[in-house]
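Task: encode each sequence below as structure tokens.

Item 1
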Amino acid sequence: MSITLQDVALILGLQIDGPALVGNVVVGAGRRWASWPDCCDDLLGQHPERDVIYQDPFNPRVSSKFRMGQAQAQTCLPLRWLRWTFYRDSYLDLNEIDFWRHVRAYILFLMGTYLVPDTSGCEIHLRWNQEFIRQLPTGSLSSYRDELDGLLDSQVIWEPYTSEVRSQVADICLSGEAIWLARVPLVCWTRVEWHLPDRVVRQFGLIPTTEVQPMELKFARVDGRGKADTDWMVYHLPYIGLWEDR
């Protein structure tokens, strides 16, 4: 079992087909924004202020202060701040500028929690006690693997997205159907992850074989910490080329 582009499109409603999610360095002296807080102010309308106490919209008794990461460069946004700040019961009364700011915040939150979470673990701390996480059976990788290994064939819905399901979703969810089975690297700034649908072909109504190609043997994930000035379009150029040839 694996997360596929089909899952991302049909569950999250995100467009999956298009240019690689990477660009040139735009923050720093002589660039579009002088600092990351300036970037946030422009695209989101605000950034976390260290001295401001923020209120949890879901629990008025909970409040917190936030800052943009531990480093002096201030390159991170707290996911909880995004959720608290941009949550609204309705978005109908927003003007166009504020609406797009909320859209950007929502996409950032999805990327940081579900699609390409980083190594900070800030989202994990909200759900589990980090100190004892390895002692909890529900929080360990081996526990999940054991549960999956114990499933019977009859307990798995191999093709969850039936024609009836697909007929009820928005057009954007089906716009990238042509690449659901593409075996390509997915590029998101510092991160590259391989999309390997050939390991879960039963999800697409196909018959699995034992001739599954291994992932790139020399593949290694990159840690983006301390690389604020790295031009990731150049760094990941080989992977971007593979994605563009999908």
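Item 2
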Amino acid sequence: MMSTPAHIAAALEMDQRLTPQEMYAIEQNLTHRKQNDPTFNLCVGIKHLIDLLDLITQMEPDHRVAAFLSKLEDDNLV
């Protein structure tokens, strides 16, 4: 299980389907939320992350980051 923004960022980097800018935006958003919300909890399995990447890479690049973050929330992973 990945439980920190750095874990997610490392997995995204290894996967290589997102641009460096998209990966940075996701990591920064998760880091900001962790620093500012004491109830923030991140728990994502690698299979779920791969499924999520399969979904968002079919989208327009302008919507990928927002879709990724929204889907994490929808699935109660953050």
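Check on item 2: The chain has a mean pLDDT of 93. The chain has one domain: 5-74.
End of task.
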